[in-house]
Amino acid sequence: MPDVRLASPKGRWILLTTVLGSSMALLDSTVVNVALPRIGRDLDASLAALQWTVNAYMVTLAGLILLGGSLGDRYGRRKVFVIGVIWFAAASLMCGLAPDANVLIIARALQGVGGALLTPGSLALIQASFHPDDRSRAVGLWSGFGGVGAAIGPFLGGWLVEGPGWRWVFLLNVPLALICVPVALRHVPESDAGPARGRFDVLGAVLGAVALALLTYALIEARSASVAVWVTAVAGVVAAVAFVYVEHHRPDPMLPPDIFASRQFTAVNLVTLCVYAAFGGFFFLTALQLQVVAGYSPLAAGTALLPPTILMLLFSSRSGALADRTGPRLPLTVGPLLCAAAMLLMLRVGTDANYLTDVLPALLVMGTGMVTLVAPLTATVLASVDTARAGLASGVNNAAARVAGLVAVAALPLLTGMGPEAYRLPAAFNTSFDKAMPICAGVLVLASLLSATLIRRRPTPDCPHPECRTHGSITTPPLETGETEPTARG
């Protein structure tokens, strides 16, 4: 039984460690979009290279995040968390020193591996260390501080890009890791979930990541219609089929197929795919639109994108409480429609857009929609499976959101006819942006229809509830852990 109290010095050190570690990954997910135009200019990169700067990280993170959580359970959560922080910092250093776009993309993929190790580990350490009476408050503080990090991320990214330069968006992770690792080794107790059982599904994790990488490449390069693109697309489909086959036939699969026997779980993940595909495409393109077309500086663009995160921080817990009373169907139907309306409002953002009259109204509606739907989405995921599988269900849902985002970043430029130099040509980019927003809005309307027809009106009685009541991330739903009885060591 974990016995660390939140008010104790050790409790404060554990909280500091987990906040620092998770903030590294969270900051990168929110600040890189703001830096993309400067990265492209400095490295003479094409639009495809900028897409890969975002997606290389997402491919490895989404493909390996479930495996990362399992490694912590088996070998020790602190050990895997520390390895993840060191790995992430080393890859960040490689990003910051990258001489060209190809090296940057490779380094971003390596960053994703580190993120897959540290992201599930930060919350798992809180679960494994704190006394049950203090655990909810500790999770709340961890989530709240993480949300603050997500809120300042775009502002900080814009300031760094304009000041020291875009490379410091990545280099900033190195001093954070130099603080985090010694504190973790000295003050955080090691823990695991007990005796090891079964084998790791490394093959499944590799096949999943390879399938995502190949299909993403095919989408990004599809405009060339070359033989290599077709071969890659076919290979990606083969890898995806092999992944499904392996998961059905392994005794200990990373993604147990029977979890989708729950109609509610399948439905809510379909909604997640639609919602976070739209969000991923929206925030990727909007950060570029504000700079390339509207003429905003990186700092102004980063600051402009703050309202949705601030609204999430202020009201996500209240939204979750309201959904407990009304049931999930209503907020999961209304929330996507509000976000769809916001994306249509973004059509007003063009050359010399006024922030107060053109940009802010759309982002306020966007934030309201996100507040309405994100907390009920997570609660519905947890309610749709047995309590013992709540952690797995949340991990699958989190990975689904990341996959949806990377597919959107890969596909939207193709669907809207963006050329390799589009981000250098304001008129061309604006035309494609005006095509992309209705597409994103249509995907959100589909999410609303799925919710209205497939989501239960009332939650299941006695279902597990989310621990992360306050949530600030705009790119993924909160990652929850299941109820565990960890074994503390040291």
TrEMBL record:
Residues 475-490 have a biased composition (Low complexity). It comes from Streptomyces griseoluteus. GO terms for molecular function: transmembrane transporter activity. The chain crosses the membrane at residues 12-36, 48-68, 80-99, 105-126, 138-160, 166-188, 200-220, 226-246, 267-290, 296-315, 327-347, 359-383, 395-416, 436-455. GO terms for cellular component: plasma membrane. Coiled coil: none annotated. It is a multi-pass membrane protein. Its main location: membrane. It is found in: Cell membrane. Residues 14-459 form the Major facilitator superfamily (MFS) profile domain. GO terms for biological process: response to antibiotic. PROSITE patterns: MFS (PS50850). NCBIfam families: efflux_EmrB. InterPro entries: EmrB-like, MFS, MFS_dom, MFS_trans_sf. Keywords: Antibiotic resistance, Cell membrane, Membrane, Transmembrane, Transmembrane helix, Transport. This is DHA2 family efflux MFS transporter permease subunit. Residues 460-490 are annotated as: Disordered.
